[in-house]
Amino acid sequence: MKLKPNPTKTQICAFHLKNKLASRKLDITWEGVKLEHTTHPKYLGVTLDRSLNFKEHCVDLKRKICARNTLLRKLVSSKWGAQPETVRISALALCFSVAEYACPVWGRSTHTKQIDTALNETVRIITGCLKPTPVDKLYLLAGIAPPHIRRQIASDIERTKQITDERHPMYNTQVEGFRLKSRKSFLKCTKKLEDDPQTSRLKLWEVESKQKVEEKLPPGHNNKWMVWRTLNHLRTGVGRSRENLKNGE
């Protein structure tokens, strides 16, 4: 079956680093139809931009995660609350899954901090901890590796496929010279995994946190939500004080 082009559904965009030409629009006609110029085309769910810094994509992801955090709060807003394990699984399915989609492409962007901020709120919901709680303690209590570690391992998984799978579009692609120091190439910043993804995540997480870590909830998660939340306040040493209540906690 042959593919038939549809100019009315075709978008065009120029990718470059010349700021002087940032507002320039391409004027291209195809089969008598003027193609639509867009500054932020979307390809397979990833929003692209002129300089490929993925700022718009990160902003969109943050917006999605914040909306899904609102759904998670519904599980813990009542007095009884959902089981902590249920909240954790829901967070992985709703928030972390969308935050890691196609991350081997955009995961090295400087704008990923916006996504991390939204995911920090996700693990606060899982643990019931307050905003003053140190972020590193949140992920330990939630039993979830920090976002940058999960993105790194996801990128290494893709690099492993690129090296070992002959069907991969980039199979046998060699690393060449890099002209721009500001660009962090996928081939330059990733490596082949020697262990399974979970073991690799734990090893990287342990090196960073300098302690034994596990991808599961700590003891006490079988208790009711109110007990679980109180336990985490005690573990972190951050509870409901007058100062926290003053700040809206």
From TrEMBL:
InterPro entries in alphabetical order: RdDP_mobile_element (IPR052560)
- What is the protein name for this chain? RNA-directed DNA polymerase from mobile element jockey
**Protein's organism:** Macrosiphum euphorbiae (potato aphid)
Lineage runs:
Eukaryota, Metazoa, Ecdysozoa, Arthropoda, Hexapoda
